[in-house]
Amino acid sequence: MPLSIDDKRAIVANVNEVARRAHSAIVAEFRGLSVTDVTELRQKARTENVSLRVVKNTLARRAVLKTDFECLQGALVGPVFLAFSMNEPGAAARVISDFAKSHEKLVVKSIALGGQLLSASDITQVAKLPTYSEAISMLMSVMQAPITQLVRTMAEPHAKLARTIAAVRDSKSI
């Protein structure tokens, strides 16, 4: 059953809204995957807060216009789906790359991150991007390192004096 013009407008508006809020997007071809495989992929995507959409290519091209993912228009050919990372830039890449390891028929066509088009082979680097909590943890450790080093440096003269006195004590007791 063909879609009415209002239905098409609603789909374009919905995908456009998701694309405006997303951090990254992946276009992947799902030709040859069974319905159970796609259902499994959708469940994994839902748990990671990744929006996975199968949309007609002409509608998808219109939906990504005037967004950071306009660069993906050339990859929207054939049976593809769009995976948008909503919270973390690497979430969609992690879901897709993990799923592609066990399903060879899933082929990544293109990746967009921050308005830049990346090749499909860059999916492992994007998947390795830290999560939000990991990034905060790294930032806190970097911020804490100078203070920790300062405390160690300031405590070292006292510790050196204590070790020297202990060595003199030990040498006289022998």
Automatic annotation (TrEMBL):
Domain of life (superkingdom): Bacteria
GO molecular function, one term: large ribosomal subunit rRNA binding
PROSITE patterns according to UniProt: RIBOSOMAL_L10 (PS01109)
Gene3D superfamilies: 3.30.70.1730, 6.10.250.2350
InterPro entries named among the record's database cross-references: Ribosomal_uL10, Ribosomal_uL10-like_sf, Ribosomal_uL10_bac, Ribosomal_uL10_bac_type, Ribosomal_uL10_CS_bac
Pfam families reported in the protein's UniProt record: Ribosomal_L10
Presence of keyword Nuclease: no
GO biological process: translation
Role summary: Forms part of the ribosomal stalk, playing a central role in the interaction of the ribosome with GTP-bound translation factors.
Subunit structure and binding partners: Part of the ribosomal stalk of the 50S ribosomal subunit. The N-terminus interacts with L11 and the large rRNA to form the base of the stalk. The C-terminus forms an elongated spine to which L12 dimers bind in a sequential fashion forming a multimeric L10(L12)X complex.
Designated name of the protein: Large ribosomal subunit protein uL10
Organism field: Candidatus Thiomargarita nelsonii
Record lineage: Bacteria, Pseudomonadati, Pseudomonadota, Gammaproteobacteria, Thiotrichales
